[in-house]
UniProtKB/TrEMBL annotation:
One of its GO terms (molecular function) is triphosphoribosyl-dephospho-CoA synthase activity. It comes from Enterococcus caccae ATCC BAA-1240. It is an enzyme of class 2 (transferase). NCBIfam families: citrate_citG (TIGR03125). This is Probable 2-(5''-triphosphoribosyl)-3'-dephosphocoenzyme-A synthase. It comes from the Bacteria. Coiled coil: none annotated. Belongs to the CitG/MdcB family. One of its GO terms (biological process) is prosthetic group biosynthetic process. Its EC number is 2.4.2.52. Keywords: ATP-binding, Nucleotide-binding, Transferase. HAMAP family: CitG.
């Protein structure tokens, strides 16, 4: 990769990541989630909060890519570097949002994905647009980076006096959350979300991603939902999203889709439920769609 092309390509990758965060924020209507017209089930944040948060994370998105590109050690060593930088990014985000957690999960995932992308762009001389095989290589490298993450992070939980909510979910219900998704190389994206986007990328983009959001809500282990409403509420949201998918399709009219999702949003607001895990995966899906030149 020529020097000039290298910097242009690395810059494009980090720009795609920022664009993905902003795209997810402005996608409307999203049940229970913040968008330009609704705060969803959140009382402490709005659309502007997400813009501010994305701006705070922007320089770190670039640094994640650079960190991977310049890394010469093992995948696990890169993980430790990226986690340390990710903690700095999270602190910057929280300063900007005055303590409101907007992108903690997304920051974790983009730190892994962007550093792995940078690493492989150097090692394999990958160019944009990525092929499906290039994308698969990134997820495989993330899997190597996150190997043993659950065991390491959740060791000796039974002996800890104070547990985070994620730790409680793991100990009581075996819910692995985003750590488990990362350790497995994001199978939700590789096996479901990205094949869906590749199949229907010529469809109306807004409809495509709203349908993807519904699909994710119907299938994934969303610790944000469980945190707010418990296991039963999460399972109920999955059931309702599944039922909507039986009545809606990629060919549904914009009016029909928007009406159904606005009603779902109103319901989740009443129940104080927010599928934040699904939202993060929507952003990641958009990122890889941009990398592969689908959009």
């Amino acid at each position: 990769m020529k020097q000039q092309n290298k910097y242009e390509t690395l810059k494009s990758v980090s720009e795609f990541a920022l664009e993905s965060l902003l795209y997810e924020a402005r996608l409307y209507p999203k049940p229970g989630l913040v968008d330009p017209k609704s705060c969803g089930a959140h009382t402490d944040m709005n659309y502007s909060t997400f813009i501010d948060s994305s701006a705070a994370l922007a320089p770190f998105l670039t640094q994640y890519v650079d960190l991977g590109f310049n890394h010469n050690g093992s995948p696990s060593a890169l993980f430790e570097k990226v986690r340390a930088l990710g903690q700095q990014a999270e602190a910057a985000m929280l300063r900007k949002t005055k303590g409101v957690n907007t992108h903690k999960g997304a920051n974790f995932s983009f730190a892994l994905v962007l550093s792995a992308t940078g690493k492989l762009m150097n090692d394999k001389q990958l160019e944009i647009p990525f092929t499906k095989q290039d994308t698969a290589a990134v997820f495989n490298y993330v899997k190597q980076m996150a190997k043993g993450l659950l065991l390491k992070d959740f060791a000796d939980l039974a002996y800890k006096k104070q547990l985070s909510y994620g730790e409680q979910l793991y100990l009581e219900h075996g819910i692995v959350g985003i750590r488990g998704e990362a350790e497995l190389g994001y199978p939700t994206l590789t096996d479901s979300a990205l094949p869906f986007l590749r199949k229907y990328y010529n469809s109306d983009q807004r409809t495509l991603f709203l349908m993807l959001l519904l699909h994710l809500m119907a299938t994934i282990e969303d610790s944000n939902l469980i945190n707010r409403g418990g296991i039963y509420a999460w399972q109920n949201v999955k059931k309702q999203a599944t039922e909507l998918l039986q009545t809606l399709s990629i060919n549904s009219s914009e009016k029909e889709l928007e009406h159904a999702l606005v009603l779902f949003d109103q319901q989740l607001i009443k129940e104080n439920l927010s599928p934040g895990g699904s939202a993060d995966l929507v952003a990641l899906s958009f990122f890889f769609g941009r990398l592969e030149g689908l959009f």
